Amino acid sequence: MMNILQRFHLGLIVVRQNMILLKYLTNLIYFLEEAEMDLIVKHFIDYAIVHLALW
Questions:
Q1: pTM: predicted TM-score of the whole model, two decimal places
Q2: What is the sign, positive or negative, of the torsion defined by CA atoms of 6, 11, 17, 19?
Q3: pLDDT tens for residues 7-21?
Q4: Is the CB of residue 49 less than 8 Å from the CB of residue 28?
Q5: Taxonomically, which superkingdom (predicted)?
Q6: Gap between the Cα atoms of 17 and 23, Å rounded
Q7: Is residue 12 part of a domain?
Q8: Residues 12, 15, 16, 21: what is their CA dihedral angle, to the nearest 10 degrees?
Q9: Is residue 28 within 8 Å of 4, Cβ to Cβ?
Q10: How far apart are CA 12 and CA 10, in angstroms?
Q11: Number of domains in the chain
């Protein structure tokens, strides 16, 4: 059985992973906008990255 500190630590790990993913997605979106990619391509790539990150 996990105590409260272990749960808090696991929660912090999840938050940190989400922050890293969000930063990566933000950089990717900026790059795709600079490369003038179509909106459909950007959404597909975003979906693929999120799907792989959460898998």
A1: 0.52
A2: negative
A3: 788 888 888 888 888
A4: yes
A5: Eukaryota
A6: 10
A7: no
A8: 160
A9: no
A10: 5
A11: 1
In a domain, 5, yes or no: no
Is residue 29 assigned to a domain? yes
Residue 11 lies in a domain: no
Type of residue numbered 32: L
DSSP string, 7-47: HHHHHHHHHHHHHHHHHHHHHHHHHHHHTT--HHHHHHHHH
Host H or E run for residue 5: helix 4-34
Say how far apart CA 20 and CA 5 lie, in whole Å: 23
Find out whether 25 and 46 touch, Cβ atoms under 8 Å.
yes
Segment 23-46, tens digit of pLDDT: 888 887 787 777 777 777 777 877
